[in-house]
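Feature request disguised as a bug report, sorry. It would help if multi-protein outputs had a clear separator. Right now it looks like this:
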Amino acid sequence: MNKKLSIIIPLKNRTDITVEYEPIQLKTFCRHNLELTGFKNEIKINNNIKLNLLLNCLESLKKIKKDDEHFEIILVDFNSDDFDVKLLENKENNFNIRVIKENDYFSRGKGLNIGLKHSSNDNILFCDADMMFKDRDLFDSLYKEIKDGKVFFPVCLDLCEPTHQLGYWRTSGYGICGLNKNLLERHNYKWSEYDTLGKEDNDFWSFFDELNLTSRYKVKGYYHQWHPPNKEFKNKYYKNSDYKKKKILINLSNENLKTKLMNNFSNNNFYISNDYEANINYIILDGTINNLNDAMKYKKYNKKIILYIIPNNTKNKIFYQYINNLIISKQIKKNHLFILNKSINKDIIVDNVNLSNLIYNNKIINENV
């Protein structure tokens, strides 16, 4: 089989990171005979540890690559300021590192799509800068699964959790995966590009899993070095980085109403989402069964989300019965779903924004449509 592989790594400031000593279980790394910093000796200053995540990753890739393999490493760098990633570029025949500079907020999905466009090989591994490899198992398994026409989602051993001093198998994430790029072209699929952390990997997995094209199992010698300890750190390089702001998706066909609501919520310290991305707090949507079904699919990933429905027809008994069935079957809690119907609810407040006032008092829509 063709053993030419493009490895795509999107990043922002993942080369030189100083973290607290305690959350990093040095004993865990020692048990697996791993070094923390790769090119540099371990540095411990005032209870802090310096982690060169990207350098660890690249060095480990170079060590496990076979002589007959060609690795093309594509680093999509979103203006890192901790290290000049351009210094890592080389033109080695079998271990070529290319750096694509992207002058924008970090978006993992966007970085993976950019890297894919610049890739020279058919075999692709979508990767992260904080991974480390010490065994051939992942790559031998990857070539096998690609040959069988599958998208391979390997399960790594996570070394970063302080409560798991032996490490643990990270079965919840789908961000690292490999495939032949023809699969993406055949199904006209690309990574979701979100302005906040998360969900692009769930989208990717769900799409190909529904097609019965996924393979997933544990592999040896494949490690997750470290992960930011809180959501603020994880999300800080994304455009929508402020966790004090609530996030709202407005999915309406009435453009006048949609524009007015977007402007109002933007002025009231909300992020406006353009798609079903991660960590949305509220969704305002048209009262159709199809729209509600889309929202309910998303609710599987985000059980705390609250839905506000603007019915197209307040006398549509089928739609109201459908909602009632969702509540009775406990697919959604009654206090997680509100219908904007003046005869049912006088006022509906969304974080100090009177949604009922915006809609009815301004006569944006007619409740008897």
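(second protein starts here, but nothing in the output says so)
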Amino acid sequence: MESQADDTNVVILEFLDSDRREWDDFVLAHPHSSPFHLIAWKNTIEESYRYKPVYLLARDPRGVRGVLPLFLVRNLAVGKALISSPFGVYGGILADSPAARQNLIAALRNWESNGGWIILSYAMLFQSSVLGNPMYHGM
């Protein structure tokens, strides 16, 4: 799914309800997506566990170029943590360009450094060998 077009205009935005269709369309079209990337999973986790979603999307003038589902989790076991797709077996970054992937990684690092949050499941977020596709997890 890697794009050949110019990637210099990729910006990272927080998910809004108005982004639902574009988010899910992007996820459904991506060859390495899972149900845990869909907005239905966000709603399930948010309603069942009261975790606060922080869903980030990479966008350029052509539309959504990448997504990163995250949840802010606070409990005694982990303290404060950002977790991608809790209770799911897959999650992390889906992107169709290097710029989208790198900008999502930068946004994640910004959350970590500015908020004092620890990132759990780095392996899930950044493994390049999981599916052998650098657009899926790789750094």
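Even a blank line would do. Unrelated, but nice: The radius of gyration is 14 Å.
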